[in-house]
Write a structure and sequence with these properties.
The chain is an alpha/beta fold. It is built from 14 helices and 8 strands.
Length: 314
């Protein structure tokens, strides 16, 4: 087998399942260490006095069998510190013969040029092996519709084939159908009505506190869009709305993190609802359907068997 590439990038449109694919691949390479980081995590561990007693490079070097560092959602960071830290790590992985780790990053296709330019600003002028990740094909949609016949009506009635090719959009519809939630013609009949249905039913929810949930999510989106940040400190939010955080996290709308003893919120996928023109960013869905779909299996198989990543190629 050819030597695996040391720097890989899963690139594709928003919501196509890049993170889910990376997780499926990581679970399939038994015997190799996989260090999973967000961009700001790399910056945090690189800081003096951070959570690590030793530099990250030294920690990785101590893992004799080597492995992979996964930096998920590198395009979502606009932090100079994050790019500087990732660039330093990339340079070390490429140039240091005592490091047996390689790197996989995920990024939206349209942001990939910006990401590589930012890394180059910090002297990480390196050769990446980009792996395109696409949305579902007609055959994939038919397979899901065969399992969930009620989906056919939604697809035909709303002419939503294009929207439902996005795995995360498809996931939220299928989960509602599987849960016995009726999706009538008055709810979804085109793309605009789908966005309204999503916001009303998933973001605002069906129980008490609908208005408060909506206010909190829209405020989060505004802050993260204006500041170009993927996380927001709870200290930046109105305390009166924080009672809804646990419910929103349970419903998959946002995720609560902890960093240096400060609670943070990250919108699962809606980052910058009002900031970007990319309509796909308006759907904060988790992935369940995609992980078992044929497209995912094909992509994992392709990554595992091409020259890029091999089980025994570390």
């Amino acid at each position: 087998m050819a030597q695996p590439a040391s720097l890989l990038a899963l690139v594709g449109p928003s919501g196509c399942g890049k993170t889910a694919l990376a997780k499926a691949w990581a679970a399939s390479i038994g015997g190799a260490e996989v260090v999973w980081l967000q961009p700001d995590d790399v910056a945090a561990v690189a800081q003096p006095g951070g959570p690590l007693r030793h530099p990250l490079v030294d920690v990785l070097r101590s893992a004799c069998n080597g492995g992979w560092v996964v930096v998920d959602g590198l395009d979502r960071s606009f932090s100079n510190g994050a790019y500087q830290a990732v660039a330093h790590l990339v340079t070390a992985l490429v140039s240091d013969d005592t490091l047996f780790f390689r790197m996989l990053v995920t990024s939206q296709q349209q942001e990939w040029a910006r990401v590589t330019d930012r890394l180059a600003d910090y002297n990480a002028v390196v050769a990446w092996d980009p792996i395109p990740v696409g949305t579902f094909s007609d055959a994939d949609l038919r397979q899901v519709a065969d399992t969930f016949p009620a989906l056919r009506g939604v697809m035909l009635r709303g002419r939503l084939d294009g929207v439902l090719r996005n795995p995360k959009v498809l996931d939220v519809v299928v989960r509602r159908l599987a849960g016995g939630v009726a999706v009538g013609e008055s709810m979804i009949h085109d793309e605009a009505s789908f966005a309204g249905w999503f916001y009303d039913r998933l973001v605002r929810g069906s129980g008490g506190g609908r208005a408060g949930r909506g206010v909190l999510v829209m405020r989060l989106a505004e802050i993260q869009g204006d500041r170009l940040q993927a996380e927001t400190s709870l200290l930046d939010l109105d305390a009166a709305t924080l009672d809804h955080v646990d419910d929103l996290e349970r419903d998959g709308v946002c995720q609560q993190l902890r960093q240096h003893d400060i609670s943070l919120l990250s919108l699962s996928l809606v980052n910058r609802w009002n900031c970007r023109e990319n309509r796909e960013q308006a759907f904060p869905f988790s992935v369940h359907v995609h992980e078992d779909a044929s497209a995912m299996k094909r992509n994992v198989h392709e990554i595992a068997n091409k020259k890029t990543i091999g089980r025994n190629g570390l």
